[in-house]
Amino acid sequence: MPAYAVGHKVPDSDSICSAIALSYLKTTIGEETLPARLGELSPETLFILDKFGFEQPELKMTFADTDGIYVVDHSDRIQGPDDIDDTTVLGIIDHHKLGDITTSTPLECWIRPVGCTNTIIKMMYDFHGVEIPKNIAGAMMCAILSDTVIFKSPTCTTADIKCVEALAEIAGIEDYKALGMEMFTVKSSVEGTPVRELVLRDFKDFKMGDNVIGIGQLEVIDLALFDEMKADLQADIAAVKEEGDRHSVLLLLTDIMKEGSELLVASDDAALVEKAFGKSLVDGKAWLDGVMSRKKQVVPPLQDAFA
């Protein structure tokens, strides 16, 4: 049986492109590895796969029958496979805070404070001296542009920019910023999409103390796209909160042009959310100027507030 590379539940572009890129690298150096996914793909991710000629990775929810897994783009147990204890974690490649996955055997770890997991995987290709195929380079480049919001996110580093430039050259992409904007235009297409699908499009659960906090994010080029559906979005995050026995559900509506986010909140204790961001909620909403990153600007202050 092969090993698998798998990202988090509700996979985003970084999660999927990381699984594809890492599985090729591992297989090339003699460790047969296949990419997998833990959920359905977003329009942006489907755009990237179609652009560079990839099929969707296998939808696989159990891994007990495998030779182990490489965990990419997360290290929190709640975000990974439900049967993670029944398989061997061979490695973790991630750019988030260190989570609570533990192992009984030694493992490979590549964890760096950069804007995207694919930036780390580019470093791994360089370390092993493996040439990156043109199509994989293009997908990796798009994932970095997505996660760094075309370099506007506070998580973006010089390493991310250098990796995009190198990957663009390999992929033969002359204007990578134009491709990034095309990608975000696809991401901004929300009209006609069911509200629940939007709420869960980029959604992660986090354990904070004894509480489960769900945080979703929708990045668009114009926040006005949500004007007619904001009330429905607020009603649905309240439903998601109750259905999942969560303490709170937050939804970030991020405007990549204005470089800020409107925060929608459903919570058992909204005062904790207000404490985290130093903002008063008005009708369950607040504008957070300059806030674009869930992992750097939202999760840390929430964890402090719930400590």
List keywords for this structure.
307 residues, 2 domains, inorganic pyrophosphatase (n-terminal core), alpha/beta, 20% strand, five-stranded mixed beta sheet
Describe the protein's architecture and organization.
- α4 packs antiparallel against α5.
- The protein contains 10 helices and 11 strands.
- The model has no long low-confidence stretch (mean pLDDT 96).
- It has 2 domains: 3-185, inorganic pyrophosphatase (n-terminal core) (Alpha-Beta Complex), CATH 3.90.1640.10; 195-306, DHHA2 domain (Diaminopimelate Epimerase, Chain A, domain 1), CATH 3.10.310.
- Strands 3-2-1-4-5-6 form a 6-stranded parallel beta sheet. It has a 5-stranded mixed beta sheet with strand order 7-8-9-10-11.
- The protein is of the alpha/beta class and 307 residues long.
- α2 (43-51) links the parallel β2 and β3 (58-59).
- The longest helix is centred in the first third of the chain and has 16 residues, at 13-28.
- The protein is globular.
- GO terms for molecular function: inorganic diphosphate phosphatase activity; metal ion binding.
- It catalyses: diphosphate + H2O = 2 phosphate + H(+).
- Its cofactor is Mn(2+).
- Residues 180-306 form the DHHA2 domain.
- One of its GO terms (cellular component) is cytoplasm.
- Measured between the Cα atoms of the first and last residue, the distance is 42 Å
What is the overall silhouette? globular
CATH architecture of the largest domain: Alpha-Beta Complex
CATH class of the largest domain: Alpha Beta
Mean pLDDT: 96
Radius of gyration: 19 Å
Helix content: 25-40%
Fourth-level CATH superfamily of the largest domain: inorganic pyrophosphatase (n-terminal core)
DSSP helical segment count = 10
Spans with pLDDT under 50 lasting ≥5 residues? none
Overall structural domain count: 2
Percent in strands: 15-25%
Biggest sheet layout: 6 strands, parallel
